[in-house]
Amino acid sequence: MAAEGVLLFGADGQLGHELQSELSVLGRLIPLTLADVDIADAKDLQAVIRHHAPRYIVNAAAYTAVDKAEQEPDLAQAINATAPGIMAAEAKSLGATMVHYSTDYVFNGQSAQPYKETDATDPLSVYGQSKRDGDIEVMAKAGAFFIFRSSWVVGAHGGNFLKTMLRLAQERDSLSVVADQHGVPTSARWMAQVTREALQHPQHADLSGLYHLSNAGRTTWHGYAQYVLTQAAQMGWQLKVKPEDVKAIGSADYPLPAPRPANSMLNTHLVQQNLGLTIPIWQTGVDEVLAALWATKV
Asked: Which domain holds residue 145?
C-alpha cells in the first residue's frame, strides 16, 4: 500500500504553484521540478516514485511549448504521454490515486457545441496529440485517477496570455489579437482547489475518470485581452494601448506552426454532477490574478 503524502510533479508551473498550497492539507507534500527529476527519463521517474511511495501522485508537469513541439515531437511525447503512463502504472502498483491534467487541444475545434468527455478526439497539433496520448495512457494504466481537461489556464505564477497582454500593452503602441477562437480562461487557483476537493471526497476512488474542468462563460482571445486591459487600466496600470483599440484579427492573419482549435469550449456537466461543483465565471479568476500581480507591482 502507498504511504501518506503527495508527490507533485511540475511544482514550479502556474498550476503546480497553486497545487502546493492546496494539497499540503492531504499530508506530506513532495514538490518536484525538472531540476529534481527528468520525467522524460523512465528509469529516473520510476525510481523517484518508488522511493517516496506516495498516497497521491499529481502530475502538473507538461511540455507546453505548442509551436516548438512541432519540431520536438519525441520530447513532447515523452513528457506528455510516456511519463504520465509510467506514473499511472506506478500509482496503481502502490495503490495510490493519480491526478493528471489535460487540454482542450485534444479536439479539432470544429464542433458547434462545448465538447463532452465522450466526444471523439482529433488533435490538430503535435502538442494536442501528445496530450491525447497521455490521457489514453493514464486511463489504461491507472487504478484510481482523475484527469482534468481544461482550457486557457491562468495564474499569477508563471507565464500566460494575461501576463503577455499586460506586458505588450505597456511596451507597444498597438495590439492585434485573434477573435475567431472561442474558449474560457480558467483559474489555476480554482483548479487546484477542485483537485483538493476531489481527493478529499469520501468516495473519490469511485469517482475516478476523465472530467472537463473550466470556468463558466465564453470569450475569445480578443475579448479576453480587452477585459484584461480594461480591468488593469481601472486598477492603475499605465498602458499605451487602450482596450477599445485592440484590433480584432482572424487566425489566418496570425499563422503559427501549430494550428489552434477554433472552439475550445468544454462541457462541464459531468464534473458538476459528480463532484457537486458550483463553477465560477472566468472573470472572477482573471480579476484575482490581476489583483495578485498588482499587489506585487506596488
From this structure: 6-160+184-216+265-280
